Fold:
Amino acid sequence: MTKNAVLLLAHGSPENVADIPEYMKYVTGGRGLPESVVKEVQHRYGLIGISPLRCHTVGQQTGVQRETGVSTYIGMRNWHPFVADTIEQMKQDGIEHCVALCLAPQNSRTSVGLYRKALMEKNPPFTVDFVESWHDHPLLIQAFAENHRAGYEKARAEASHDLPRIFTAHSVPERTITEGDPYEAQTRETAALVAKGLGLKDAVWRFAFQSQGMSGGTWRGPTVESTLEGLAKEGHRGVFFQPIGFVCDHVEVLYDIDIGFRDFAEKLGMKIWRAESLNNSATFAQAIADIVRQRLAAQAVTV
Ligand SMILES: C=CC1=C(C)c2cc3[nH]c(cc4nc(cc5[nH]c(cc1n2)c(C)c5CCC(=O)O)C(CCC(=O)O)=C4C)c(C)c3C=C
Ligand SMILES: [Fe+2]
Ligand SMILES: [Fe+2]
Structure:
């Protein structure tokens, strides 16, 4: 019988501020970034404390292994455990085939494309069934909707009135989209499916790109900032956020939304709330498990 595994590929993040300069070299493929950008990222990590990305990713690995009964590994592009080290471990464990899935449901060449490259350029000594995207999987949509509903109910009670909602995804350079990347269509589709699952009318929600890069160039909008300004002009005094491109908490949730957008909104006279990230959601682990089972069943038929 083939020795199968699941390989969860993820961004990766250091836990400590001191490791940020080295981490940024991995993020930019060795190019590095201006000192001012590195300092700003260090400042943001300092404000959130320890980044929980690795901890949540390990929790998700445990959830997928529990749901599938298949050995599950994690490999990061930009920090430990690096993809190369994980491949070595899988080799030692005698893995013959793996389903590789990125912890980024929507496909962009700036995320999934780079994770795939990090894996394939190491010539793994096992066959790889690579999942390109899973942005519309019903259980992923359900997991987002569950967290949205729970968070919105609390926010609605606190605000004592209905709130408009903003679904967000990480921005990418403008040319990534104009050159044909599927990312924008897929992020918008995830948002629309979650809104549909919640029974929301189109008028009560928006989609915006967050976390435009700090090193210049034109990045895809609409920005969250312009969307907040538009809502403030319409007379809204509160907003409910849900990031649908990230599957756990990290600096771009805990700083960009919880601190950056909170402060920006405050200046417009608005208060913000946010849905909890998927983190250890059981429905989320079941979504990945469902994809893994389908892929392994198809593999068994074709072998
Ligand atoms: C789909 C696109 C991207 C996702 C999803 C994404 C997630 C993600 N990013 C960080 C941390 C950083 N990313 C940085 C730069 C950067 N990010 C993307 C795209 C996505 N990131 C691009 C295209 C770039 C530019 C890279 C380059 O070569 O210049 C940085 C550097 C600072 C900055 O420019 O903002 C950091 C830090 C995390 C933690 C994360 C989710 C897990
Ligand atoms: Fe990024
Ligand atoms: Fe970013």
Summary: The mean pLDDT is 97. The domain at 4-134+281-302 is CATH 3.40.50.1400 (Rossmann fold).
